[in-house]
Design brief:
Strand content: under 5%
Radius of gyration: 20 Å
Number of strands: 0
């Protein structure tokens, strides 16, 4: 058995594993991870789902990390890929729920009579404004889920090992993604 960590506020140079371990007894210590990674996690979620949803997912990711902090492998000094893994799972869950809602809406829309003209005008304007978003979403949707996850986590500037850890796959799987699917941040390997 080792000597327990000294209790007290962690400094900014403390390893993330030691911060997490300290948070077992001093929950406020976990704020260090929030301060270090909140912006990165928010940017990733915003790229995937938009800024409104990103606010909620970022907060939820840190709540989950806090609740699961006792299960964190403290032999891993950095928690960044662990946090990206949590938010990637949340994004996937959100996408699946969204797909179910859209399918249900499509079924309901086919059973309703056509709406009045002003609504049609508003819908057309919204569709026009979001046409570039739709094309991007379509291109991302055309990618297999594993490539989409690698690409979008790569935007977080993680290296191959961190992406592999976040997705729970071997590093070789990440390295073998098609050219362009790993983004500029992946060249550090």
């Amino acid at each position: 058995m080792g000597v327990p960590p000294a209790l007290g506020p962690p400094d900014d140079s403390a390893s993330e594993a030691s911060v997490i371990e300290l948070s077992w007894d001093e929950p406020d210590a976990s704020a260090v991870l929030l301060n270090r990674y909140a912006d990165d996690i928010h940017r990733y979620a915003a790229r995937r789902l938009g800024t409104e949803t990103a606010d909620d997912l970022m907060a939820e990711a840190f709540v989950i990390a806090f609740r699961q902090r006792r299960r964190y492998d403290v032999s891993r000094p950095q928690a960044r890929s662990w946090l990206y893994g949590i938010v990637a799972n949340l994004v996937g869950r959100h996408r699946r729920a969204e797909a179910r809602r859209l399918k249900a809406l499509a079924r309901v829309a086919t059973t309703r009579p056509a709406e009045v003209e002003p609504l049609a005008d508003r819908v057309a304007a919204k569709v026009s404004a979001e046409s570039s978003r739709a094309r991007l979403a379509g291109a991302l949707a055309a990618l297999p889920a594993r490539h989409r996850d690698v690409l979008l986590i790569a935007w977080g500037d993680l290296d191959y090992a961190e992406v592999a850890e976040a997705l729970g796959v071997p590093v070789g799987t990440v390295r073998s993604s098609p050219p362009g699917a790993t983004g500029a941040g992946m060249s550090r390997g």
